[in-house]
Amino acid sequence: MLRKLFICVLLCSVSALYAQTPKLHSHNDYMQKVPFWNAFSAGLNSIEVDVFLKKGKLYVTHSVNEIDKNKTLEKLYLDPMMEVLNNNIAFQDLQLLVDVKSDAIKTLDKIQQTLKKYPKIIQHSQIKIVISGNRPNAEDYFKYPEYISFDYQELDNALAPKNLAKVAMVSTSFKDYSVWNGKGRLTHDDFDKVSNIIKKLKSFNKPIRFWATPDSKSAWNTFVKLGLDFVNTDQPSKCAEYVNTLNHRTAKALIKSEVYQPTFEYEKQVNQKVKNVIFFIGDGNGLSQISSATLANNKQLTVTQLKNIGFIKTQSTDDFTTDSAAGGTAFATGQKSYNRAIGVNTNGNSIPNITEALHRLNYKTGCITTDEIIGATPAAFYAHQKDRGFEKQIAKDLLTSKLDFFAGGGSRFFEDLKIDQVFNIVANTSQLNNLDKSARAGIFFSKGGVLSIAEGRGNLLAKTTKDALTFLSKKEQPFFIMIEGAQIDTFGHHNDTEGIVNEGIDFDRAITEAIKFADADGETLVIITADHETSGFSVSSGNVETHQIEGGFITHDHTATMVPIFAYGPQSDKFRGVYENNEVFHKIMEVINASKK
C-alpha cells in the first residue's frame, strides 16, 4: 500500500498532469527514410546521427562495414540545417547529437574542421552540437570550443565546474535498470530502480535521457510521467503526435456524481406496470466514454448499478455510420432512415414519432437537451424535416408539436415565432411550480449553444431533469420524456478527453434523479442509451485515486461501434440483448400497451 502511495505521489508530482512536455530525441535518426527532415518536421528538438571517420570523411553510419559514400554528415544533416536557416524556417531549440563511432579525438577534430564551414550553425543561439559515443576524457571537455558540448554518461558527479559546464545532457542505458518491453507497466521493483537512477541523474542539474528504451505509447507515457527531459524514439512522427497531445487527451474530473443505489423494488411486483418512460440519450456516449466517466468518478456511476443491459446496432439506411438525426429518428419513430433525416422515412415522408403516438394515448411528453432545442436529437422527437439543416422549419415544428415541456438552448431560432403563445416560457425550473396543471412550458438555457461543464453549466441538467419530472407527474397523466446529454458528442468530435469525462459524469447526475424518481414512483421505466459512439474513444491510461483519465482517439467523427443500453424499472428486462436501434421504439410501445391490458 505504501509503495502504491509512493508511486502515485511521485507520478503526480513529476507530471503535474503533464504540464511539462519533454523534448523528443530522434534516436538513430540516420536510419529514417528521410533523415533529419522527418524528425524536424515533426517538431523534435534533438536528432541523433552516428558518425564514422574514414579517409578524412565523416560518414553517417554505425560501423565501417555500412559506409555509403553518399551519406555524409554534411549531406544528411549540416546542409539541411543550413536550408532551415537560409529559408528562415521557424524552429525551437535544436540539438544535433553526434554519436562518434570511430576514434574519439581524431573524429572530433574532423567534426570541428567541418563545422567551421557552417558559421551560421555554430553561432546560432538555438542550435547545440552535442558529442556522444566515443568522447575525449571528461577532464578535457573545457578545452573544446564553445559550440561543442558533451553527452555525459557516467553516474558519478565528480566533474570540475569548468568541465561540467560543457555537459549538455546526462544519459544512461535504460536496460541497465529494467527489461521492460514497453507493454503493460513497469514492475514495482523496476519502477523503484528507474526512479532512483532518475533522482541520481537529476543531481547533475542537466537535462537527462535514457537510451535503449522501449518505443511504444506506454513507454512514452511512462517516461513523460517520470520526468525525463528527453524521450528517446525511433518513431519521430508518432511519438511527437502522442506526446504533444498528451496534455489535451489527459483530463481530471471537475465534478462528481453522487452514486445512488437503486432499490430494485420493482422486481418484487407480480404485474409490472409501466406508466411513465424516461428515455436518456447520451449523444456519442459509447462504452469507453461511460468507462472514462466511471473510472474518474471513483469507479462507480449510478448507471453502472443497473442490471438490465444490452447493445444497440446503430447503422442508418444509407450509411454504415449513423448521424444523430438518423439515430434519433430510429429511436423516435421505430423506422430507420437516412443520415440527416428528421422524423421522415427514406422517401422523405413524415412518419409519426413517439411523442405524437403517446399523445393519442393521453400521455404528456417532453424533451430536455444540453444542445440547442432544434438540434438533431431532440428535433427527431417532435419535428418532420428532410434535412437536419432546415433549422427554421424545425423551429416551426416545435410550435405544432405535441410536447408539453421542453428545455434546451437556441432561443434565437424563435425570436419571430411567438412561441410564448404556445408554451409558457419560464426563466428557470422553479417557475414551473406557478403554472397550471394543464400548462405547456418551455425553458431556454441560452440564446445559442449551451455552456459546457468546463464553462460553468453547473448542475443544470440534473436539476432540470428533477424539476421536469415533478412538473410532468403533477399532471396526473402518464408521461414520456427524452433527456439528452448532448455534449459528450461535442467533445468527442473535438477529441477532448476532459469534456468527454465531465459531460459523462454530469449525464449520470441526471440519470440519478430519474432512478430516484422511478424508485419513488414504482411505475416508471428508465432507459439509458446512445445514438452512436463518437471518435473511437479509448481509455488507455489513468489514475483512479486522482480521478485522471488518458484518452485516445481514432477519428474526429462518429463510429459504427455498438452502444450499450441500460434499463431500470418495470419490464426493464425486455431491453436486454443485442438489436437494432429502431427496435427501442417498438419495445417501449410494447411495454406501455402491455401495461394497459
TrEMBL record:
Enzyme class at the top of the EC tree: hydrolase
Signal sequence bounds: 1-19
GO molecular-function term, one example from the UniProt record: alkaline phosphatase activity
Any Pfam family matching the protein: GDPD_2
Keywords: Hydrolase, Phosphoprotein, Signal
EC number(s) recorded for this UniProt protein: 3.1.3.1
Domain of life: Bacteria
Family: Belongs to the alkaline phosphatase family.
Name the UniProt record assigns to this protein: Alkaline phosphatase
Organism the protein comes from: Wenyingzhuangia gilva
